[in-house]
């Protein structure tokens, strides 16, 4: 067995950003694995959430937010770059773990037992994992995925990265931790504020919640005529991503407030956006059941709260 961190599935405690009291326990696979990897390494993932402040609406979906590689390097000293998996995933994972490095690997969720009830054995869905330990002889691996840490073995292992793998080589990133830095709180806070200002400078000129509201309203008739599977995909791409982004932004505001910045009210406003995004999603589910819905009041409140939250962070950080 080759293992980077001594993690036991039975005792592993996820980050506070993935605890059950969150409104949106999961964001997207890429953000979620970074949260857990940083947490497992003993680093604070909340400090890296400045990218939530520049989130936008991309016309037909909320932006698929990610930890920017440069932010991760500046805050934690970890570099992320694409790796060419020319030897096959098994060999690369084993070698890089021995060197003290992680790989992010795009895989087929059909073979991930932690997605039981959604994708496992039911749907071929692309997702990303980070492998922490591998035993090629026993055909077993331990991996971060979404909001927790899991294990798989046997036939799942073979199809995921082993002898039965089929398809094109997956997209793989190398996470080098050999220059990882554990900064003191003052140094970290200064760097976080600098990133906050940088992302605020790149924030969309038009309120992204209002843009999303306009698109959802225009899609209602089409969505009502679609099947439930389309609804789930649509809700994930719009309201879940918006709500999860807002909740993460609220956690960042709390982090800044704990260090003397006047961002507590912004944190509350972001959380109201997250709550109302969930309420809108519930209303959309009623639409699929043939009932009429009025989303405008909730969307208006969300947009007002988003502007108030962003304006508050701008004022508190001097930009």
Helix content: 40-55%
The share of residues in extended strands comes to 5-15%
* Rounded mean pLDDT score: 97
Radius of gyration: 20 Å
Count of individual domains: 2
Head-to-tail CA distance between termini:
50 Å
Which structural category do the helix and sheet elements fall into?
alpha+beta
* Overall shape: globular
Looking at this protein, list some descriptive labels:
seven-stranded antiparallel β-sheet, alpha+beta, 319 residues, 7 strands
Secondary structure layout plus pairing:
Layout: E1 2-3, H1 29-40, H2 69-76, E2 79-83, H3 89-98, E3 102-108, E4 126-135, E5 140-145, E6 148-153, H4 154-160, E7 172-176, H5 185-201, H6 208-224, H7 228-257, H8 264-288, H9 296-317
Antiparallel strand pairs: 1-4, 2-7, 3-4, 3-7, 4-5, 5-6
Helix pairs in contact: 6-7, 6-9, 7-8, 8-9
What does this structure look like?
The chain is α+β, with helices and mostly antiparallel strands. The protein is built from 9 helices and 7 strands; from the N terminus they run βααβαββββαβααααα. It has 2 domains: 2-42 and 79-176, no CATH class; 205-317. Helices cover 46% and strands 13% of the residues. Strands 1, 2, 3, 4, 5, 6 and 7 form a 7-stranded antiparallel β-sheet that branches. The longest helix is centred in the C-terminal third of the chain and has 30 residues, at 228-257. The chain starts with a strand and ends with a helix.
């Amino acid at each position: 067995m080759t293992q980077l961190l001594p993690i036991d599935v039975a005792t592993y405690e996820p980050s506070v950003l993935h605890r059950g009291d969150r409104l949106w326990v999961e964001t997207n696979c890429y953000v979620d694995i970074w949260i857990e990897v940083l947490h497992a390494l003993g680093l604070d993932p909340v400090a890296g959430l400045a990218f939530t402040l520049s989130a936008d609406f991309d016309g037909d979906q909320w932006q698929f937010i990610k930890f920017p590689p440069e932010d991760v390097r500046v805050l934690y000293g970890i570099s992320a770059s694409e790796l060419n998996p020319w030897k096959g995933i098994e060999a690369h994972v084993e070698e890089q773990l021995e060197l003290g490095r992680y790989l992010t690997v795009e895989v087929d969720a059909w073979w991930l037992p932690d997605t039981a009830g959604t994708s496992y054995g039911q749907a071929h869905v692309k997702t990303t994992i980070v492998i922490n330990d591998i035993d090629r002889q026993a055909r077993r691996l331990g991996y971060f995925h979404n909001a927790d840490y899991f294990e798989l073995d046997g036939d799942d292992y073979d199809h995921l990265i082993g002898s039965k793998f089929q398809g094109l080589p997956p997209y793989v990133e190398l996470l080098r931790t050999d220059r990882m830095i554990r900064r003191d709180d003052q140094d970290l806070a200064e760097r976080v504020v600098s990133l906050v200002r940088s992302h605020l400078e790149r924030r969309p000129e038009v309120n992204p919640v209002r843009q999303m509201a306009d698109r959802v309203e225009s899609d209602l008739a089409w969505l009502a005529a679609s099947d439930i599977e389309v609804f789930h995909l649509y809700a994930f791409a719009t309201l879940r991503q918006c709500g999860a982004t807002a909740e993460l932004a609220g956690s960042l505001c709390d982090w800044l407030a704990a260090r003397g910045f006047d961002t507590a009210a912004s944190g509350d406003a972001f959380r109201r956006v997250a709550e109302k995004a969930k309420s809108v999603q519930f209303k959309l589910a009623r639409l699929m059941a043939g009932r009429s819905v009025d989303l405008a009041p909730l969307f208006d409140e969300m947009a007002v709260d988003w502007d108030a939250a962003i304006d508050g962070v701008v004022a508190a950080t001097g930009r």
